[in-house]
Amino acid sequence: MIVFKCETFNNLNIDELHNILALRSKVFVVEQNCVYQDIDGKDKKALHIIGYLNEEIIAYARIFDKGVIYPEYCSIGRIVTSFSERGKKHGNQLVEFSIKQCYKNFKSRAIKISAQAHLEKFYGHHGFYASGDPYLEDGIPHIGMLL
Fold it and tell me: How many CB atoms are closer than 10 A to CB 36?
């Protein structure tokens, strides 16, 4: 069973930080064949949602209070599950836990994400709806979505 925790940047240990960055790089850079700067200086301002399965990090997201990424919205980003664990509903659990942590930690019900366009229906199942026109981010079609 997957176990989630929410940590500040300063409470991550070196192994956790390494494994988070490795998972993000493996999926967003290598798997998606997208060269971009993943380490963007925002991790220190985020709360980190970490999903463990048998002591291995297999899911991750980072959340921000309003005013950090978007002026009027909290946000969830870098939502990722390891390739070997996809199709097992861990992504759904990750998004649900991330939303709850936004509500708990930031006291706001307004959340905005920048979703890869092909995942619009997935996020729609969690109550998000498209806002604005599709756009390219690092060469990948994205759509802004609100909850």
Answer: 12
Main-chain dihedrals φ then ψ at residue 104, nearest 5 degrees: -70, -45
Average pLDDT for 14-43: 89
Report the distance separating Cα 92 and Cα 81, nearest Å: 10
**In contact, 24 and 60? CB cutoff 8 Å:** yes
Helix, strand or coil, per DSSP, at residue 114? strand
Return the number of other C-beta atoms located less than 10 Å from residue 18's C-beta: 12
> Is the pLDDT reported for residue 77 higher than 90?
yes
Q: Which residues lie closer than 8 Å to 51 by C-beta, 6 or more apart?
A: 2, 3, 4, 57, 58, 59, 60, 81, 90, 93, 94, 97
Question: How high is the pLDDT of residue 31?
Answer: 81
DSSP 73: B
At position 46, the amino acid (one-letter code) is: A
pTM over 0.85? The answer is: yes
